[in-house]
Amino acid sequence: MRAYLYEDLSNGKVLLIDMVSLIVALIFSSHGPIAPSLATGVSLYRPSQNGDSCCPSMAQFVSDPKFLAAHFTPPKLAWQATIGKMVHFAAPFGGEASGFYVPPTARSKVAIIMVHEYWGLNDFMKRTAEKLHNDTGYAVLAVDLYDGKVATDPSEAGKLMADNNEQRSASIISGGFSALAKDQFGFKPTHIGTVGYCFGGGWSERAAIIGSNRVQACVVYYGLPDIRPASLARLKAPVLMFQALQDQWINGTVVGNFKSAMATAGKQLQVVPYDANHAFANPSNPHFNAEVSADAYRRELAFFKSKL
């Protein structure tokens, strides 16, 4: 019988799970996003089957011409990595995953898992990862949820986001946590934070849910959060969310529902509103706001410093 090695992210244990038990647990459990294996009791992350989570809901925006129009084709970036490099690691449910990894300075014990916008892991995101490292000394692992695909125009980016496989993305993020825990990149952090933008903003929160006790800080830039009680029960990190008040998609209703759900769950959430539009932190976007972006980044660094 085939078997998987699966790492329980809540305590770092690596357990052997047979294929039959895994399939039964994933298909027949009704316990929400965290389904216990019938054979071992290990916590398994099970993405939503009802389209009510971050990424399927985010994909609905692709049908809105205004959403596509709000994302200009990013210009070619004259940039080369100076510190980071592409790395590969195993994904728990099979296959190989990849990401852009920037090693820490000698004094740092912190790693940040970064999640890209709907364009994919392009040079802009890689540059953002190196900047975060340069300003903090942290290790940064920018995971690639599109498996090497990078969009160069809004319609292509929309298709990639719409076609994103939620279970595969959760597996990639889980693999990133495992690789860090196993010292695969020559560094084993004692503290981990997450950050993401737009499509990746929702996945930053999801990464904190997947990582659970391993994550001590989560930053969300105008991303669509998972507000299901079973998901938030697994979330242990405080969340800092940047809200764009002119955003038609991650709007006041979305943010208000997130605030309410987090309060009900007894979780820590700080929302910082800006009089800006969606994607205000991306210089290639027509709604880029340099002043707001700089202030949000300053708050992000201060938040990470206080929690990590």
What does this structure look like?
The protein is α/β, with parallel strands linked by helices and 308 residues long. The chain has helices at 19-28, 54-59, 65-69, 123-136, 154-163, 166-181, 199-211, 229-234, 252-265, 290-307; strands spanning 3-7, 14-18, 34-36, 43-45, 85-90, 96-102, 110-115, 139-143, 191-197, 215-221, 239-244, 269-274. The chain has two domains: 1-46, no CATH class; 50-307, Alpha/Beta hydrolase fold, catalytic domain (Rossmann fold). The strands form three sheets. It has an eight-stranded mixed beta sheet with strand order 5-6-8-7-9-10-11-12, with helices on both faces. A hairpin with a 6-residue loop joins β1 and β2 (14-18). It starts with a strand and ends with a helix. The model is unreliable at 1-56 (pLDDT under 50).
Count of discrete domains? 2
Question: Which CATH top level class of the largest domain fits?
Answer: Alpha Beta
Q: Note the gap between the termini.
A: 42 Å
Give the uncertain stretches in residue-range form. Answer: 1-56
What is the CA-atom radius of gyration, in angstroms?
Answer: 18 Å
Give the CATH architecture of the largest domain. 3-Layer(aba) Sandwich
Largest sheet: 8 strands, mixed
CATH topology of the largest domain: Rossmann fold
The helix fraction, in percent, is 25-40%
Describe the strand arrangement of the main beta sheet, using strand numbers. Answer: 5-6-8-7-9-10-11-12
Q: Given the helix and strand composition, which structural class is it? A: alpha/beta
Q: Note the total helix count.
A: 10
> What is the CATH superfamily label of the largest domain?
Alpha/Beta hydrolase fold, catalytic domain
Portion of residues in beta strands equals 15-25%
Mean pLDDT: 83
Number of strands: 12
Order of helices and strands: EEHEEHHEEEHEHHEHEHEHEH
